[in-house]
Every structure is written in structure tokens, then in C-alpha cells.
């Protein structure tokens, strides 16, 4: 299986093929729902880690594949969203046999998703053209849909809802939370509903000339 350093076996050869193909595949990922209606990235790679250092190594490997480009406002402007999801699986421990309890009912699964959103810049100021302009349009559309989802959820809190994902305004109109209008919001649908919790940090500049950009973000 392992072979030698001079003549690798089938195992290291297979791993090289798999991870090399992963590194070359930058195509758009498909989002799907499992039997519990949890949204996940189809074809995504889940890596088991046993320490904070191992988790950080995985993050850094993914960060190297992130799209970064130069604009008139930023030398290293992020041209893609960065999503780092940690799935924590907890279960009971059998001290007698020194092993984890193999009981599905005792398993508790939690998710922590850290997201660095791509920069939102007005194209008139950033000077983007060609492919950069297309990227900026896609970024702004996904961020705009995030705003729409947050507004719809706020309406649910204000007016109540008839069913999951909808809200009825005082005039009788039903608003649907548009998660599916963008992959960004669809991926995080479960964090906005049920027991999910969301916190947002916004980076702004204090310069007076950035006032309008700041107000757009907040």
C-alpha cells in the first residue's frame, strides 16, 4: 500500500491524484440540502483535525486559493467570499473501555462558520473593468441579497410569521426570505433560522470622504 520514497505505493499515489485535482478545480460548487434540510456544499472536502494548529493549517491552505485582485481603492482586494466552517462532534466517553460511546442519541453536532465577505466597492470609485467588473457585480449582488434576507427576517420579528421562512405584513402581504436568490445566503440559511445565531462585524474607515460608503454598509 505505502510503497517507498523512491517507488510510492497505491495509497500515496491515490492521495496525490485526489488533492492535485482539488487544487485545480475552481469551478462553481453546487449547494444541496440533506434529509434534515441542512445546506451543504456538494463535493466539498471535510478534513478531520485534532488540534488548533491543524485547523489553522487547513484554513491557510484554503486561503491560498482565494481570489485577490488590485483595484483603485485596494492593492489586495478580496474578490471572493472566504468561508471556514468548523463542525464539532461531541459524544459520550466510556472510561471502562477507553473509547467513545457508539450511540447516535448521545452525539451532539455543532457548527461554527466564520465568513470573510468580499469587499463591497462602488465600481465608479474602484475603477474595475472587464473580469474585475463582473466579479464586483457578483459580489455586490450577493451582498445585496444578504441585506434583503436580514430585512425580511427583521419583518418576521416585527410582524410574526405564518410559517417558516415567511412573514405577513399588516396589509396582508406575505414576504418570503429570499435565501435561494444567492448562494451566499442559501449556504447560511440554517444559521439564520431555528437555534442559529449570527453576529456581523463591519470594517469601515473614519475618513470624512468615506462617509457615504460607511452609511451604505451600516
TrEMBL record:
Pfam families: Kinesin. GO terms for molecular function: ATP binding; ATP hydrolysis activity; microtubule binding; microtubule motor activity. The keyword Nucleotide-binding applies. Gene3D superfamilies: Kinesin motor domain. PROSITE patterns: KINESIN_MOTOR_1 (PS00411), KINESIN_MOTOR_2 (PS50067). Its main location: cytoplasm. GO terms for biological process: microtubule-based movement; mitotic spindle midzone assembly. It is found in: Cytoplasm, Cytoskeleton. The keyword Transferase does not apply. GO terms for cellular component: kinesin complex; microtubule; nucleus. It comes from the Eukaryota. Keywords: ATP-binding, Cytoplasm, Cytoskeleton, Nucleotide-binding. Belongs to the TRAFAC class myosin-kinesin ATPase superfamily. Kinesin family. This is Uncharacterized protein. The lineage of its organism: Eukaryota, Metazoa, Spiralia, Lophotrochozoa, Platyhelminthes.
